[in-house]
Amino acid sequence: MDTIIYSAKGQEKGKVELPAFFSSEVSSILLHEIASAYLNNQRAGTHKTKTRGEVSFSGAKPWKQKGTGNARAGQRNSPLWRKGGVVFGPKPRNYYTKISKRKKKLSVNMAFSAQFQNGNIIVIDSVKIDEIKTKKVVNLLKNLKIEDKKVVFAISNDTDFRMAARNIKNVVVENIENINAYQILWAQKLVITSKSIDLIKKRQLV
After folding, report:
1. So what's the pLDDT on residue 66?
2. Considering the chain, what is the average pLDDT of its residues?
């Protein structure tokens, strides 16, 4: 299975062969499970509200039971009162969702396949830049006609390119060896290099 490879100037340079899993069958159920697990694992789980036993109030009765005309009240920490305790509020918890290695590998295969079938994958020969300038990456996006998209560069570890792109909104640079299905699916355009394709094959994702 071949696809067009572009230069950094947006010109066609020929074709490159993609791994077989770029045409694998896509399971929306598995991809949803993986995406949900990824988002769950980003949560700190540190949310906390105080119960009526934890808020800072005296335990004294606000006023006498009868004769004031007010409703009966026992304590100021009542959930009915302003600054009172919260009933059944959130407590610290761990949102971590475990996913098996097999599912992770399959989901990456399916995510690449889904993006390729939707025409959202762009292969370029190289992302090397001669100086660490944001303008260099902006020009590359313009040449590829994807400057207004959510873009993920799934490339080999390139510190210079990562630093040049870090201030651009909706542009993510990720090491191809660490990329996950959620990052792939988040992108409106996924840019990979010919070198990245070789690294994908070494991960033995098929």
Report:
1. 95
2. 91
Q: Tell me: the pLDDT tens digits for 117-161?
A: 999 999 999 888 888 999 999 999 999 999 899 999 998 888 899
Which single residue is written with the structure tokens 């969702």?
97
Q: Within 13 Å of residue 4, how many CA atoms lie on the same side as its CB?
A: 10
Q: Which domains does the chain have, with CATH numbers?
A: 2-44+95-202 (3.40.1370.10), 49-89 (no CATH)
Closest residue by Cα to residue 79 from 54, 42, 111 = 54
Cα pseudo-dihedral 53, 56, 59, 65, rounded to 10: -100
**Positive/negative CA dihedral, 55, 57, 59, 61:** negative
Q: What share of the chain has pLDDT > 90, as a percent?
A: 70
> What are the tokens at 48?
């906390």
The Cα diameter of the chain in Å comes to 92
**How many angstroms separate the CA atoms of 206 and 201, rounded?**
8
Q: pTM for this one?
A: 0.81
Q: Return the closest-CA partner of residue 198 out of 181, 183, 177.
A: 177
